[in-house]
Amino acid sequence: MSTSVSAPSDRSARSDRSALSAEGLRVAYGDVEVVRGVDLVVRPGEKVGVVGESGCGKSTVALALMGLLASGGAVTGGVVSVAGGRVDYRDEKALDRMRGSQLSLVFQDPLTSLDPVKTIGSQIAEALRRHNPRMSRAAVRARCAELLTAVGVPEPERRLRQYPHEFSGGMRQRALIAIAVANDPAVLIADEPTTALDVTTQAQVVELLDSLVDRLGVAVVLVTHDIGLVSEFCDRVMVMYAGRVVEEVPSAALFDGAAHPYTRALLGSLPVPGRPRSDDLTWIPGAPPPLAALPAGCSFAPRCTWAQPECSAGQPPRVVVPSPGTTTGEVHVAECRRALEVVASSRSDESTEGEPRG
Amino acid sequence: MADETSGQTSGQTSGQAGAPLLRVRDLRRSYGGPHSYAVLDGVSFDVRRGETVGVVGESGCGKSTLARALVRLDPVDDGRVELDGVDLASLRGAALRRERRRFQMVFQDPFGSLDPRMTVQQLVEQPLAVHGTPPAERARLVAEMLDDVGLGGDFAHRLPPALSGGQRQRVAIARALVLRPDITVLDEPISALDVSVQAQVLTLLRREQRHLGLTYLFITHDLAAAEHFCDRVMVLYLGRVVETATSEELFARPLHPYSAALLSAAPQPRGTRERERIVLRGEPLARRPETGCPFASRCPVGHDREVCRTSTPVLAPAEGALGHQVACHFPGELVAQPLERAATA
């Protein structure tokens, strides 16, 4: 509701330094709130990861930012600004202008997001014309070829005339990225862009995204379940659980300095290369709570080995975590009343996972 | 580590005592009529009792075809699959059905592989009924098995739609293991699950293995899981085994350029990566080329070498560790460079 209030111009001073900012974003499907107050700031050229398990709301955040929620879903709160301008999610025309030119989205499955009966060239051209209706035919053609080259598709002239089925999975994902960056957006949101791809192809696509950040200055929001991938690719990681960001941590501090018990548990369940085989993996008992019936207080408390009675009493505080080794200005915040103890235990005890579990 | 290597030697020489449980020789499987293509092109390996052997590779390498051929969901065109000396590839009809309880399979998708109208109890009992276990014994075995996988009590009467992905996969595992199979083929058993649940399923599989003395063939694209879970790993590329070694050996010292690239490409949490990532050029091929090494076109070592384009390397023992085999003209030439640990950009 609070979203429809149109007043705040005092925020602009802050938002013109970010490519994308969301404050207190809330999304609901009917009566069920699936995103429960998410803050996200992305600076130009920055790589931010959003990580979490199925159902945590990470893809919903991506769709909500784009104004592409499925029917029944709505942004119910929060302020979103893109390139300094506030986004009004009821103004379809404005959203149309924003999508592709300021904010772009790349989906997981490149086969279903491309139209099978149109050539790759005509699909890139469509994206260009949408925002540049008066662009000449020759200019469109030249720009299409340039874009395919930029995303590393060899023989662009021939490839433009081909259909999606003639492209491999990795090449389709490259074509989709070409469409997404065709109009020089400030931010590219990539929702599980490499999940459907093989490891060696994934490495190529990640390298491509990295080079686009360098060459075009586009910021990337990488939404994924792969905590290894985000921490390697991104500057900053937001860990989501049950519709909230429970920890925001610089990637460099993630592995040794994660402060939320959920983040630590995720890392503990990961078979990291080189980890001794005798070292049994840990897992999180139970399942995430249904969003329609969240427990009181901290939503992770019922599964948390660090939980105390007061965790279920009220919303956990946002604790600022001092992280050695990170530069000043980098935020490390965990939504847990015992965050500092969690960090201390993981730092004092490097060999075990810092999990008080037998 | 030392005893693992010596175990390897006795299996490899396959004397009477150390005869492997599963012996696969020159397995071939083709698809597609007149212009048929061999998805598996002469795959050979042994699996010893109590061992976990991993098969890793990317899509199209033939790993699922291998799984289906081994458990005879698909016919085998050529080659031998011997389980304790019985050639499964040639079995038909009743004889095949009798042998089936000795080799079981767990599929990737726990949503598609369970009948949604059967209770957990019925699902786990069904394979016993099919193989003629008397009802009284069935009840006992099912109860035991469900307890083992942590789905005892109330869970027994639930239907699959009321279960999470991890719980469903545990039902699928119980269905396979309740028959006490000699060998269990696990085809991507954790890839459809969330990370926190994957660890639970792997731990369960390992515990049951110790408990029941099981033998696993673990098919996966997830290298970290293979390293953690398997005693020995085979790397498959376009239908051929390009390298095989103990997990420790393979992950510490990959000799095939494809293995080296594959291992280095897997994403790793920042600060844990020890070697630089090798990014391959070009596109994966859908088919092996007519001549030469199937990896030659993408290979950082062999793409411009005549011998790689013209002659097909065969799987041969590598120098150094026992049991390490590699199919490459220039094994060990591509090494991912060690990273400086301290610096973070």
UniProtKB/TrEMBL annotation, chain A:
<keyword id="KW-0067">ATP-binding</keyword>
<feature type="domain" description="ABC transporter">
    <location>
        <begin position="20"/>
        <end position="267"/>
    </location>
</feature>
<dbReference type="InterPro" id="IPR050388">
    <property type="entry name" value="ABC_Ni/Peptide_Import"/>
</dbReference>
<keyword id="KW-0472">Membrane</keyword>
<dbReference type="GO" id="GO:0016887">
    <property type="term" value="F:ATP hydrolysis activity"/>
</dbReference>
<dbReference type="InterPro" id="IPR003593">
    <property type="entry name" value="AAA+_ATPase"/>
</dbReference>
<protein>
    <submittedName>
        <fullName>Peptide/nickel transport system ATP-binding protein</fullName>
    </submittedName>
</protein>
<keyword id="KW-0547">Nucleotide-binding</keyword>
<dbReference type="InterPro" id="IPR003439">
    <property type="entry name" value="ABC_transporter-like_ATP-bd"/>
</dbReference>
<dbReference type="InterPro" id="IPR027417">
    <property type="entry name" value="P-loop_NTPase"/>
</dbReference>
<dbReference type="Pfam" id="PF00005">
    <property type="entry name" value="ABC_tran"/>
</dbReference>
<comment type="similarity">
    <text>Belongs to the ABC transporter superfamily.</text>
</comment>
<dbReference type="InterPro" id="IPR013563">
    <property type="entry name" value="Oligopep_ABC_C"/>
</dbReference>
<dbReference type="GO" id="GO:0005886">
    <property type="term" value="C:plasma membrane"/>
</dbReference>
<keyword id="KW-1003">Cell membrane</keyword>
<dbReference type="GO" id="GO:0005524">
    <property type="term" value="F:ATP binding"/>
</dbReference>
<dbReference type="InterPro" id="IPR017871">
    <property type="entry name" value="ABC_transporter-like_CS"/>
</dbReference>
<dbReference type="Pfam" id="PF08352">
    <property type="entry name" value="oligo_HPY"/>
</dbReference>
<keyword id="KW-0813">Transport</keyword>
<dbReference type="GO" id="GO:0015833">
    <property type="term" value="P:peptide transport"/>
</dbReference>
UniProtKB/TrEMBL annotation, chain B:
<dbReference type="InterPro" id="IPR027417">
    <property type="entry name" value="P-loop_NTPase"/>
</dbReference>
<feature type="domain" description="ABC transporter">
    <location>
        <begin position="22"/>
        <end position="263"/>
    </location>
</feature>
<keyword id="KW-0067">ATP-binding</keyword>
<dbReference type="InterPro" id="IPR017871">
    <property type="entry name" value="ABC_transporter-like_CS"/>
</dbReference>
<dbReference type="Pfam" id="PF08352">
    <property type="entry name" value="oligo_HPY"/>
</dbReference>
<dbReference type="GO" id="GO:0016887">
    <property type="term" value="F:ATP hydrolysis activity"/>
</dbReference>
<dbReference type="InterPro" id="IPR003439">
    <property type="entry name" value="ABC_transporter-like_ATP-bd"/>
</dbReference>
<keyword id="KW-0547">Nucleotide-binding</keyword>
<dbReference type="InterPro" id="IPR003593">
    <property type="entry name" value="AAA+_ATPase"/>
</dbReference>
<protein>
    <submittedName>
        <fullName>Peptide/nickel transport system ATP-binding protein/oligopeptide transport system ATP-binding protein</fullName>
    </submittedName>
</protein>
<dbReference type="InterPro" id="IPR050319">
    <property type="entry name" value="ABC_transp_ATP-bind"/>
</dbReference>
<dbReference type="GO" id="GO:0005524">
    <property type="term" value="F:ATP binding"/>
</dbReference>
<dbReference type="GO" id="GO:0015833">
    <property type="term" value="P:peptide transport"/>
</dbReference>
<keyword id="KW-0813">Transport</keyword>
<dbReference type="Pfam" id="PF00005">
    <property type="entry name" value="ABC_tran"/>
</dbReference>
<dbReference type="GO" id="GO:0055085">
    <property type="term" value="P:transmembrane transport"/>
</dbReference>
<dbReference type="InterPro" id="IPR013563">
    <property type="entry name" value="Oligopep_ABC_C"/>
</dbReference>
<comment type="similarity">
    <text>Belongs to the ABC transporter superfamily.</text>
</comment>
